[in-house]
Prior knowledge:
- The complex is a heterotetramer, with 1 copy of chain A, 1 copy of chain B and 2 copies of chain C.
- By secondary structure, chain A is α/β, with parallel strands linked by helices.
- Chain A is 41% helix and 20% strand.
- In chain A, strand 3, helix 3 and strand 4 form a beta-alpha-beta unit.
- Chain A is elongated and about 65 Å long.
- By secondary structure, chain B is of the alpha/beta class.
- Chain B contains 18 helices and 24 strands.
- In chain B, the strands form 6 sheets. Chain B has a 6-stranded mixed sheet with strand order 6-9-10-3-11-12, with helices on both faces.
- The longest helix of chain B has 16 residues.
- The radius of gyration of chain C is 21 Å and the shape is globular.
- Chain C is mainly alpha-helical.
- In chain C, strands 1-4 form a two-stranded antiparallel ribbon. A two-stranded antiparallel ribbon of chain C has the order 2-3.
- In chain C, a hairpin with a 2-residue loop joins strand 2 and strand 3.
- Chain C starts with a helix and ends with a helix.
- Chain C contains 15 helices and 4 strands.
- Helices cover 76% and strands 3% of the residues of chain C.
- Chains in contact: A-C, A-D, B-C, B-D, C-D.
- The interface between C and D is large, with 44 and 44 residues.
- The complex binds adenosine-5'-triphosphate (ATP) (2 copies) and magnesium ion (MG) (2 copies).
- One adenosine-5'-triphosphate (ATP) binds next to helix 5 and helix 9 of chain B.
Amino acid sequence: DKKFTMGVSIPAADHGWTAGVVYHAQRVAKLLMAEHPGLNVIVKTSPDASSQANALEDLTTQGMNALVILPSNPDPLVNAIKQVKSKNIFVTLVDRAPSNNDDSVRDLYVAGNNPALGEVAGNYIKEKTPNAQVVVIRGLPIPIDQQRQDGFDKAIAGSGVKVLEKQFGNWNRDDAFKVMQDYLTKYPKIDVVWCQDDDMAVGVLQAIEQAKRTDIQYVIAGAGSKDMVKKVMDGDKLIPVDVLYPPAMVGTAMELTAAALYDQVPVRGTYIMDATLITKDNAKDFYFPDSPF
Amino acid sequence: MTAAAVETRDGPVMQVEGLSKSFGPVEVLRNIGLSFHAGKVHAIIGENGAGKSTLMKILAGHLAPTKGTIRIDGEPVTFTGPVDAEARGIVLVHQEILLAPDLTVAQNLFLGRELSKGLVVDDRAMNERAEKAVRDLGAEIDPRVVVGRLSIAQRQLVQIARALLVPHRVAIFDEPTASLTPIETEALLKVIDDIRNSGIAVLYISHRLPEVKAIADTVSVLRDGNLVATHPAADLQPVDMARLMVGRDVSKLYPDRHAAAAREAALEVEDFSVPGYASNASFRLGKGEILGFAGLVGAGRTELLEGVVGLRAAHGTVKLAGKPVHFADVHDSMKAGIVYLSEDRKGKGLLLQQDLRVNLTLASLGRFMRGLVIDRKRERAALDEAIGEFDIRAGRREMLAGQLSGGNQQKLLLAKMMMLEPEIVVIDEPTRGIDIGTKEQIYKFIAALAEAGKSVIVISSEMPELIGICDRVVVMRAGRIVGEVAGERMTENEIVVLATGATSEEAALVAELP
Amino acid sequence: MTDLAAGAGKKAQRSWKDMDLRAVAPFVALVLLLVLGAFSSPNFLSVDNLLNVLTRSAFIAIIAVGATFVISAGGLDLSVGSMVAFVASLMIMFMNSGVISSLPLMLIAAMALAILIGAACGLANGLITTVGRIEPFIATLGTMGIFRGLTTWLSQGGAITLRSSDLQNLYHPAYFGAVLGVPVPIIVIVATAALGAFVLYRTRYGRHVIAVGSNEDVARYSGIPVNRVRTWTYIIQGLCVAVAVLLYVPRLGSTSATTGTLWELQAITAVVVGGTALRGGVGRIWGTICGAFILEIVGNIMLLSSFVSEYLIGAIQGAIIIIAMLVQRFLMRRN
Amino acid sequence: MTDLAAGAGKKAQRSWKDMDLRAVAPFVALVLLLVLGAFSSPNFLSVDNLLNVLTRSAFIAIIAVGATFVISAGGLDLSVGSMVAFVASLMIMFMNSGVISSLPLMLIAAMALAILIGAACGLANGLITTVGRIEPFIATLGTMGIFRGLTTWLSQGGAITLRSSDLQNLYHPAYFGAVLGVPVPIIVIVATAALGAFVLYRTRYGRHVIAVGSNEDVARYSGIPVNRVRTWTYIIQGLCVAVAVLLYVPRLGSTSATTGTLWELQAITAVVVGGTALRGGVGRIWGTICGAFILEIVGNIMLLSSFVSEYLIGAIQGAIIIIAMLVQRFLMRRN
Ligand SMILES: Nc1ncnc2c1ncn2[C@@H]1O[C@H](COP(=O)(O)OP(=O)(O)OP(=O)(O)O)[C@@H](O)[C@H]1O
Ligand SMILES: Nc1ncnc2c1ncn2[C@@H]1O[C@H](COP(=O)(O)OP(=O)(O)OP(=O)(O)O)[C@@H](O)[C@H]1O
Ligand SMILES: [Mg+2]
Ligand SMILES: [Mg+2]
């Protein structure tokens, strides 16, 4: 077996979804190393773009042959990734695409579909509740958030769905709780909440419960955390569906990269995963009770 | 107020034997042996930097001696700290003010020994007792006022009251009267007399030798860390004390001055007010003249002059050599040739954490520039020169200003401001805490300034000093200029009448004080 | 002599008046803000909204009471936010462990544990700054990293969620309940502040806290055990954090590695907006509470009104803090 | 007197020794860390790795030089991290605007603009703290919110990316280039620090900074324009931020609302680890640089070695900061 080193650079586990990414990266790293005795997989987490650029330098120092990177913030990392690629290292980019996402930046692109995450949610609302008044809680002001929002806006464009307001909840339950409380105070009638992320949904649900409001028909979150998937599985009225945005995609990317190293199959191009709508029927396929997320 | 039970024994209450103290390689006390007796006032005198405060700090447990023994009632003791010494009945009133500025007077008096009712501190009782303790010292200070708002003199009184509040057998006063005016001094001396009569051993440090003569039973003299003499006070006159301290005759404290004829005005101040402190003040300072400012504590002298030099918000007319000027800040007045030396040399005069060189040149760095760079060589040369000229006793050049003795700090401050080569010098309390030898030097220096055509304003609470060196004295009371004395009328009696607004008979009593 | 006495009397009066002004300034700011809120949105002055806002300011307000102690004594604690996450994580993990089968007993034990851990974290901060003699800013920046890191490790980066729904239901009223119409968190705020004010203003310890913050040397010469007093302020801070956690856990029933991020800055801001000086020597517990309310209300007004782009909210909040401080300075200078 | 003089000689020596010890402490810590690094990973001591680490410490190191000025003068600036984001965003937007067609000219104009904006931001901080008399902690917390908010608004929540790849190529060497084998950022660090040290130690202004930080009243009574000196420290801080931005933009070619988060804390930590006291009156530029290296090396060692779970990295970093400070205290106490 040939000796290879695969570097995996992912964001630090700073909220539920990224924690899932870390979990799956480590899970797959073990699997791959068991499968290929010559393969060394180094997983590194970084809290922000700048330190992720540092991590790339460090991984290069350690002589990696392939890089799997899920950038915390893609555009600021383009130069650093190009730097890696210029050393003839196989680069797999996961999830977050920079504005120019071509093969000058990476060899392989594996992604969940951010615009689709918004689009699926938007379409669901449009179909289920065509004249709904919706409040939106966004994540942090970074590009993936913008892509999701754009997808959502595209989906509901021209329909009767009306967005009352958008605010940032910072992918944080406490902030989402506050924002939701104030929405509830401000708007006497809200039909649907789109909060983009399962972590924030926790806060949203508590705020609704506390206000004892019955006008809210349902909340759509996203990602597919075990708690929310469980709710969908159990038929929770407020959480009828969840939009999948699987943190496991990093594992897929690592497997594909290993394949590129060992099997010499030409693995190149773009793999986009669906933003599947999790419903009561398919929920059990997406339920991982052992994952931290 | 002196609650300690007094045991009457024949032997001394406290003794030191073979006591030495070194800071690093510098020995500041050498082989001191002294004994202090109950019911006696023992004065310690000596030049600035002689080691008086250091000795007192050792006696009160603030510093540990390098060598030697301290005995209480004949038993050798080692203090673990000031609190330990206090528990054994030794209290010290520090030369510098040690009070928490954010706490009230009463809270400071009882700090670390609060009265309480159950869990709760008993503020009412503390306020009452504090008020009484302060009143016993002849002052009237609201115990609920935050100490940060008091004048230095008031803080000094609070500090004395604080020390006397605990039961004690030995009370040490390190220059308690340095920032007090005659009225408070009188009250304090009475208090000390009472303490003595109740059988307490009192140690007393002062540079005001008549005061020492009046109150002390025994006088010990320190010179350069050595004990040079101990005599009954009755055997010594102030002149003798001065000679012992300085090691030479100090016959004439004040320099000769010849009253000059009408001078052209260097500084004219008209209808000048510093809101909250002084109002409608007008005075005139002639070229080559020394003008005194007298008044009681809180009369607003400091604030008026701080206003004139641009350190405080103020309004009114200021004319320099006849031309109206406006000082937005003190930098402006410095450029115009006026400097002000603060009475608060630790808080406003010197950077205690920096070395002597940095302090000396701070106000006049412009003179030490070589292009963009400060010329440290010239700075060092200036320091050497200043140390010589002002006779600053510094163990070594790299010392921090905070390590100088109080008097030497004053000389350093004087040197610092003179680096600006000013035309007009305002000195606030120039000799507060200064030994008699140095005083003589400072007076000579002030006189020489005037002789050289510079003009000097001296703010002082020591009337003999004002009378001794000034051409005229302006008297302030409660923020207003109430009069001016010169020539024949320049007597303590006259000044006290103006400063207090009292009748001349009352004033005569005060003026007779040491 | 009479002259002197008269002067002293006048001075005392003057100082009382401006003491008042200074202490009153945050309350004036609060009232101004309430008026602004009333104009900006019709919903603002509704009882429900005001109760909501006060209730959710509980965490910051309670933590800030502890911060008032630390700051009055001349210290600083940047670790409180991550301490919240750490204590809450351990508390939930303990409840999930199920070592005690009786639910009420379990709850009580968990609460006691939280208090203990809070105090221990505070003690650690206190010892590092006093015995280790490291500047509080740096020492607590270090422990901030440590607490946050440990929390991330405990939660494996994810969330730690209270599993037993029975326990959750039992605990639920601790945040969502009300006594005589007043939500429990508001009662806890008032109780904590009252206790804090009592300790700071009426007890000997409180006096010593101020003395240490005002001038450490003086305190030492007065026989005050400076290090012990300082260390206790950090322990009090830890206890306040624990109390905040006791309210936090029933609210969402879960914590994550991001719980409490930046709460330290909010708590310090509340303390300073409330009139306590960062240099120490002054402590205003009720001002602090008022400061915490102000911070929360600013956010609330911004959400309720639709004046500003969601992108600009951070900028406006920053600007309002500065303006609030300027108003305070202005009020103080007017004496 | 002769006795005194003799003593003086000896004492002077001693004092130089302990001055040295204090100033040397951070360098000792750095060396210890290098040894630790060498043991923990074979790659650590490679020239490439060390150059990498030094190079990327440039941002914090340069910003921390400014912070040394601010802190020596008794101030504090929490806004630097968000100031980086703000200045970088404006700089990139200007370059994207294409108002100047000649690329080199455009680049020079953009760099000049960044410097100007940095200085202006610093000026704002300075005026708010000095003229507005608001505690620096709170004032700069406010402007931190403002800069961060404005950046979010400018970027409309997304990223701002340098569009012209020609411009990017032209600018690229400013971060990635090297002169005689030494990467440009390292040269910039040394140049900034040397300039900073010159200003702080050799010029009149530097002396004034230290005086203001030691005792404001004394400085004022000595005719030093305290507010002006303080304000200028903030302007210097702004200029240092701008210089860091000049290196940051070619490195990543893009910014977002999260650029520079928590850099302020890192910069302050570097300053303090380097031996400057937060209370003001002391400034150690080279110590600061050393502190910035230490911070970066800690992270690097942790990444290269695989000792610790990545969840614990934050905790270990916190612990190392505390240990570094304890080592310093220990060295200082030994004199
Ligand atoms: N902490 C210290 N380190 C080094 N030298 C010191 C220190 N404290 C005092 N000294 C030196 O010890 C000597 C004695 O100082 P001390 O304060 O006892 O003098 P003093 O007699 O009280 O003078 P003054 O009348 O001016 O108050 C001085 O030379 C002083 O510089
Ligand atoms: N910070 C302050 N706030 C309010 N009042 C003050 C403050 N500082 C001083 N005062 C008061 O202002 C008045 C004048 O001050 P001060 O005692 O310094 O006058 P002075 O004539 O210079 O007296 P001296 O120089 O003899 O101490 C006093 O009543 C004093 O208590
Ligand atoms: Mg003395
Ligand atoms: Mg005065």
